[in-house]
Amino acid sequence: MPKMAPVLVLSLAIGLGAAAGFGTAQAQTAAYVTDNLEITLRSGQGNDYRILRMLSAGTELQVLERGSEWTRVQAGNQQGWVRSAYLQEQPAAVTRLERASERLATVSEQNQSLMATVEELESTVEALTEHARGLEQDNHRMQLRLQEATEGLQLADENQALRKDLIDLEREAQDLRQEVVRMADRSRQDWFIAGAAVIAAGMLIGILMTRIRWRRRSSWSDL
Length: 223
Known about the structure:
- This is TIGR04211 family SH3 domain-containing protein.
- By secondary structure, the protein is of the alpha+beta class.
- It has helices at about 95-150, 150-220; strands spanning about 20, 20-25, 30-35, 40, 50-55, 60-65, 70-75, 80-85, 85-90.
- The chain has 2 domains: about 20-90, SH3 Domains (SH3 type barrels); about 95-215, Helix Hairpins (Orthogonal Bundle).
């Protein structure tokens, strides 16, 4: 989903220890194939080496050794080399948008559930309020009977019990009203956060797509 605002961008730290063109082997970190680009996984550090497989945009890779031009990665159970320029630290924009959309769908389902609960609570409050009115009328009738009856003590006890029931119901109705208000506020807040997250993700994708088109035209010949 309140929750904490959904996390839409994963920040991953990649160590840069490059020396003489390539860094020494270090702890594995994640990298992702650049958006809207299919790249080659090769058996060695250069375009002359055999192509092991094609990697589609957004594919998650484990970095084994990073260099300025070529990086050794693991894709599933296969290891090979890819151009460093075609890797990015964050998941593809499309992937992030899908996650944001899934989060929005989850929040929407939660909101529907909350709204249903709110409606049930409102119905309960209405029923309790109506019952309280009936008790108030009964209390009024008991007061009239108390004034007219000769057995005043017994009627007084009944009247006291009705008063207690009325006070308890009024307290319960007040608690339910407060719960309805809290749940309504929570529902509005979840909708606002989810909507803002999707708008932000859409804007980020627009910016990334513009940069990717320019970069793809300038580096396509390197594949």
